[in-house]
Amino acid sequence: MFERVLSFLRDLPVAGGGSKPSADDPRVAASALLYHVMSADGVRQDVEWEKFKTVLAETYSVSGAELDALAAAGERADNEAIDLYAFTSVLKRHLDADARKAFVGLMWEIVYADGELHELEDNTVWRVAELISVERRDRIEARQQAAAEAPGARGTSSDE
């Protein structure tokens, strides 16, 4: 099922015909949210940046200059954003329920890339999950799976 969701994410249309990435592009919206959760604790570690780029590369089958452009577009969009709604509304329009759950799982992978769960990261994932209509149970399950796959992960969530 995860491969089916990844395939769906890869096939998302590029808004505006693919010229210059914009926040209305579901790939840029996803990149911006992933960047936002990575930066939520105020510290962007190299391991988190590498995980961010790996997730983008694997999810959207991009590499090289295209990957760098997508990462930069996400960073720029997040830095210019007033809130998360602009991005979450794009994802909610373009992703089905399974793909939205999988996206929350990707966010948790980035959160746990440094082996720690910070309360601001936890809160960010909670807010995004709420805005894209991912149930609490699914959010917790995705967090537990990401934590289990991150050796030495520390931290607790207010969900438990």
Computed over alpha carbons, the radius of gyration is 14 Å
- Quote the beta fraction: under 5%
Number of strands: 0
What characterizes the major β-sheet? none
Low-confidence stretches: 12-20
Distance between the termini: 26 Å
Percentage of residues in helical conformation: 55-70%
SSE ordering: HHHHHHHH
Which class of secondary structure composition applies to the elements? mainly alpha
The residue-averaged pLDDT reads 85
Count of DSSP-assigned helices:
8
Shape, please? Answer: globular
Structure explained in plain terms:
It contains 8 helices and no strands. With 160 residues, the chain is an all-alpha fold. The radius of gyration is 14 Å and the shape is globular. Residues 12-20 have low confidence and may be disordered. 67% of the residues lie in helices and 0% in strands.
List the helices and strands and how they pair.
Layout lengths: L1 H9 L15 H14 L6 H15 L3 H17 L4 H10 L2 H15 L7 H13 L4 H14 L11
Helix pairs in contact: 2-3, 2-4, 2-5, 2-6, 2-7, 3-4, 3-6, 6-7, 6-8
In short:
This protein has 160 residues and is an all-alpha fold.
